[in-house]
Write a structure and sequence with these properties.
Layout lengths: L1 E5 L3 H14 L4 E6 L2 H10 L5 E5 L1 E2 L2 E2 L3 H4 L6 E5 L5 H5 L3 E6 L4 H17 L7 H13 L4 E6 L2 E6 L3 E7 L2 E6 L4 E4 L3 H7 L5 E3 L4 E4 L5 E5 L3 E5 L8 E3 L4 H8 L2
Parallel strand pairs: 1-2, 1-3, 3-6, 6-7
Antiparallel strand pairs: 4-5, 8-9, 10-11, 10-14, 11-12, 13-14, 15-16, 16-17
Length: 253
């Protein structure tokens, strides 16, 4: 199995190589390329690999520019620290879209998808856009994690660890299950649109709560409801009157 890695972060490339060695010991990594320009040249001059691992933000631009200059028929697994490019990834040969830092379980799942398709079908003749629509889209529908800046470094916050997300002074914050406050770099409305509606509910203009975080619910003034989530330093979370019926239906679904 011949693999190509297009990645401009040294640590991420090393992590990817380590996962490949563990999960695909017989695979051959042909090259590690870190720019759009070099990727175009390599793909024009070499026999196409079986699979490409491709970062999106490279040293000299977005990797989607590669497809404007050279035709790529083989499947691609995108690896990126950002989730906003998912729809663009649909338009090329993506079979998965992995967010950094790469987790072993998620990487293994992507490889299993590739092997399942590759072993059953002549991949060079397969309609990869159809695969993207059938396999990739459902997974990318709802946000799995947030990229978070911590001092001079970056980390991430899994959505399953979120108790509440709220706005304050035009900024967005989340509390995780340990009660730690974390600043997010997106607006509340944008965050709300990316979350699984079965697990999160926007109770008013300022608060999005996770279903798993709810401790108690009480009647409140003017036919509203008050939600307790077990955070002592959090202001009262009030379900706005126009949201009460929808909120009850959400809880009863």
């Amino acid at each position: 199995m011949r693999l190509l890695i297009i990645e401009d972060e040294h640590y991420a490339a090393k992590r990817l190589q380590s996962l490949i060695e563990k999960e695909l010991p017989d695979a051959q990594v042909l090259e590690i390329i870190d720019t759009v320009e070099e990727s175009i040249s390599w793909l024009k001059e070499h026999i196409e690999p079986n699979l490409i691992f491709m970062d999106i933000q490279l040293a000299d631009g977005l990797s989607f520019q590669i497809f404007d200059s050279v035709k790529v028929n083989c499947p691609i697994i995108f690896t990126t620290a950002y989730d906003e490019y998912a729809l663009n990834a649909f338009k090329v040969n993506s079979i998965d879209y992995l967010l950094k830092p790469l987790e072993e379980k998620v990487f293994r799942s992507a490889i299993n998808k590739y092997q399942h398709i590759y072993q059953k079908t002549n991949y060079s003749n397969y309609n990869w856009n159809s695969i993207s629509a059938d396999i990739f889209q459902p997974k990318a529908q709802y946000k799995q994690r947030f990229l978070v800046k911590s001092g001079n470094a970056y980390t991430y916050l899994n959505t399953c660890d979120v108790q509440i997300i709220y706005s304050e002074d035009s900024l967005s914050f989340a509390y995780n299950k340990e009660g730690k406050r974390i600043m997010l770099d997106k607006s509340l409305d944008k965050i709300h649109n990316q979350l699984d509606p079965d697990k999160f509910f926007k109770v008013n203009r300022k608060h999005i709560i996770a279903l798993d975080s709810i401790k108690q619910i009480h009647p409140y003034l003017n036919n509203r409801m008050k939600v307790e989530i077990g955070l002592n330093n959090m202001e009262d979370i009030i379900v706005s009157r126009e949201k009460v019926k929808e909120f009850k239906n959400w809880l009863d679904s």
